[in-house]
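ARCHIVE CARD
Drawer: 12
Card no.: 0347
Subject: one protein chain, sequence and derived structure
Cross-reference: see card 0346
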Amino acid sequence: MTDPADVVPTGSSTGGATTTRTGRARAFRQRQEQQRTSRRTRLANLVMVGIIVAGAYLIYTERPGVLLTGAGTTRFGTAIVVQLGTPTVGTLPCTGGGTAAVERVPWVGSTKPVATGEVYVRVYEIWDGDVILDPNVVADATPSNACAGVPPSSALLWYLVLAAPNGTNELTYTQAGLWEPVTPGSANVTVANDSTLLLVTGASIAGTGRGLAILGFAGLSPISGSVPL
């Protein structure tokens, strides 16, 4: 069937003009459709790039539960794997009053030495990788006491204490403040094998489906290690 818009009236003195206008209209519609297709393609590409970037960010920062913990080679560099031992659960009397829950996580070792300035700590939900934040928590510790103030006010508020192999508390860690020395000194120290990570909380979260992860980068090499709490 012929499109009525393409029919030139017989004997019309304006047949040439009508044909020209019709051709121009078709060309205009085609250009518009091409532009719309091009915009949709660019938008789809941008969305895909955004998804890839967001996924990479979550994998390497906010979703430790989905990290591979085995050694291997990535496009960044040779992975550094931190081996964490089985936590032991206990309580800790606090100088400021009250009792804190504590899980002592052995830092068994790593495939290459790492420093605290290269790593950060996450407490996360194993079933979905969501991070448990520690907003406004205060980390109080002395070389001999991991709870030198008052305990965190909730089971979901936490801070970490790094103890050397001889049991001396060296650094504290919070997500807001990162690593801080217990006594005046550097916050960037090499983590010795057989050190201990003391996770201090207001109430125990042991056996509740949470985990502790060590993440970071040493140069171009990703650092990772995790253990269920």
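Annotation on reverse: Residues 1-14, 46-63, 65-74 have pLDDT under 50 and may be disordered. Residues 69-228 form one domain.
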